[in-house]
Design brief:
The protein has about 290 residues and is an alpha/beta fold. It has nine helices and ten strands.
C-alpha cells in the first residue's frame, strides 16, 4: 500500500516557501510515498456552481486563500527533496492547453528524476473553467482529446514528430522535448466519482481517484474502468485505485479495509493548521501507526 499526503491548502501556508519546504521534507522523512497539491487557477467570488463534495454546495477553501500553481510548486519542491513523489490532486484539466502542459509536466518529471504523478479532473466550477477559456459543457470530450495529445507528445516520434487532428487541437510534426523520465510518460490518473471518470480512466488513464465513493458504488466504478480498459486493448490490472482518508484517523486496520476494496494508494488529508510543529507531529504519529517510519 502506498500513502500520499495532501498539502493542507486551507492552512494558508502552501505559498510559503520555508513552510512548504520543511513540510515536504518531513513528509519524505516519514516515509510517505508522495505529496499532493490541489489546483484552482482562479476562484470566482460569489460562484453559483455547486461543489459536489459538501452538502452546502460550497468548498471549504476561502475565495481569497493562497492557492499557488501546483506544477510550479512541485517543481520548487523537487529541489527541496530527493525521493518524495510529486503529485496533483486534482489538476483541473480544462484550464490547460495540452501542448503547453505536455512540456511543463515532462520538464518536472525529467528534472525530478521521474517523481511526478498527475491526477486530473474535469472541474466543477463553471466560472473558473470559462475564465480560463474552455467551454464548460464540452470539457469531457476536450479532456479525452487532451489526454491523447499528452501521450502523443511524450512518445518517441522522432524524426518526424507527432501528428494530431482532432475536434479541439490540431498539429503536425510536433517535437516536444525533453521527454518524461518515466518510461511511458508521466502517470495520468483520473479524479472523479462519476461513470464518465471511470470510463476515461479505463480508456486513457493510469488509475482512478474517486472521492466519497465506497461499497457497491465503488465496485461498480472499478468494474466499469476495467471493462473500458479491456475494450481499448489495455491491461486493466495495470490501473491503480487511490482512495481518500484522514491523516489523523487512518491506521493499519482501516488501511487494510481500503486495500480489500481495491486501493493501491491512500491519499491522506491533513489538518488545516499553520503550526508547522503541530503539522509535523501529526505526520509523524500517522507514519508510526502505519509502520512507515
Amino acid at each position: 500500500m502506498k500513502f500520499a499526503v495532501i498539502a493542507p491548502a486551507a492552512a494558508g501556508t502552501t505559498a510559503d516557501p520555508a513552510w512548504m519546504s520543511a513540510y515536504a521534507q518531513h513528509v519524505e522523512a516519514c516515509g510517505f510515498e508522495s505529496l499532493v497539491l490541489v489546483e484552482h487557477a482562479v476562484v470566482v467570488s460569489r460562484y453559483s456552481s455547486v461543489y459536489p463534495y459538501d452538502a452546502s454546495g460550497k468548498m471549504e477553501l476561502a475565495d481569497d486563500l493562497d492557492i499557488p500553481d501546483p506544477l510550479d510548486t512541485l517543481a520548487f519542491l523537487a529541489g527541496q527533496t530527493s525521493t518524495l513523489g510529486l503529485a496533483t490532486g486534482v489538476l483541473v484539466l480544462p484550464n490547460h492547453h495540452p501542448v503547453v502542459l505536455a512540456k511543463r509536466l515532462a520538464t518536472i518529471d525529467a528534472l525530478s528524476g521521474g517523481r511526478l504523478r498527475v491526477c486530473v479532473g474535469m472541474g466543477w466550477m463553471k466560472e473558473e473553467i470559462e475564465a480560463c477559456g474552455a467551454p464548460f459543457e464540452a470539457r469531457g470530450r476536450r479532456a479525452d482529446e487532451q489526454l491523447q495529445v499528452l501521450r502523443k507528445l511524450w512518445a518517441d516520434s522522432a524524426p518526424n514528430g507527432a501528428d494530431h487532428h482532432g475536434e479541439f487541437f490540431d498539429f503536425e510534426g510536433a517535437m516536444s522535448y525533453p521527454k518524461p523520465a518515466q518510461a511511458g510518460g508521466v502517470p495520468l490518473h483520473i479524479g472523479g466519482h462519476s461513470k464518465a471518470a471511470a470510463r476515461r480512466a479505463g480508456r486513457h488513464g493510469d488509475g482512478l481517484q474517486p472521492l466519497g465513493v465506497m461499497g457497491e458504488e465503488l465496485a461498480a466504478l472499478l468494474k466499469l474502468m476495467r471493462t473500458e480498459a479491456e475494450q481499448a486493448g489495455r491491461d486493466p490490472e495495470a490501473l491503480e485505485l487511490s482512495l481518500g482518508h484522514l491523516v489523523t484517523k487512518i491506521n493499519q486496520d482501516r488501511a487494510e479495509k481500503l486495500g480489500a476494496q481495491g486501493a493501491d494508494r491512500i491519499v491522506l488529508a491533513a489538518s488545516a493548521t499553520a503550526d508547522l510543529d503541530r503539522a509535523r507531529d501529526e505526520l509523524s504519529a500517522c507514519a508510526e501507526r502505519l509502520g512507515l517510519s
